[in-house]
Amino acid sequence: MPTQIDHNERVRTWFHPVRIKIVELLRARGPMTQTELARAIDANTASARYHLLRLVRAGFVEHAGTRPGPKAITEKLFRHIQQEPTMEPLTFATKHGSAKDLEMRKLSLDSVAEIHRVGARIIEREPERFFGIHTQEITATPEALRALRDALKATLAGFMAGLAEPREGEKVERATVCINFYPHSAPA
Question: What is the DSSP letter of 185?
Fold first, then answer.
């Protein structure tokens, strides 16, 4: 049974890109060892263990027994815990400028940093897989920037709607498309 932690701590535990990835893998593949998870998330085993223990403590993941491993080592398995539908939703307050809103924004930036970190490692090992990064500085009114944001969101949604499901056995590649708007100065 996980140690009792408060709702805010559960939210902080959940909203981390590596932990979300671990839970997605456990949901999709079933029980896995920390070594298998480390390989799957492109991290070292110590990092995978740290994130697994945080997820166990928060009640998102649990031990799922053991199995014989290489060199007569017993490996621990971990599995995702299905959350009860009556559980309080894990969301942040959305009031602009509130402490939780600012924390959510920071976690979002942490997520982008994690995406770049993993991408940089892939580029070093497999440069042919790198798709590219483009940064463009824009000067426009807030209304024009909102219109651009909405147009890019609609374009991406249209692209996703037009994609066909991959056929059985077809090679697929997973990528993150990240469109960020960061102001350079405070509003006048």
Answer: S
Buried b (16+ CB within 10 A) or exposed e, 64-83: beeeeeeeeeeebbbbbbee
Q: What letter would DSSP give residue 83?
A: P
125-144 in b/e form (b: 16+ CB < 10 A) is eeeeeeeeeeeeeeeeeeee
Using an 8 Å Cβ cutoff, are 36 and 70 in contact?
no
Q: Positive or negative, the Cα torsion across 52, 16, 117, 177? A: positive
Measured CA to CA, the distance from residue 93 to residue 47 in angstroms comes to 29
Identify whether the C-beta of residue 101 lies closer than 8 Å to the C-beta of residue 95.
yes
> What is the assigned CATH class of domain 7-80?
mainly alpha
pLDDT tens-digit readout, 98-136: 776 677 777 777 777 777 777 777 778 877 776 666 677
Total-model pTM: 0.51
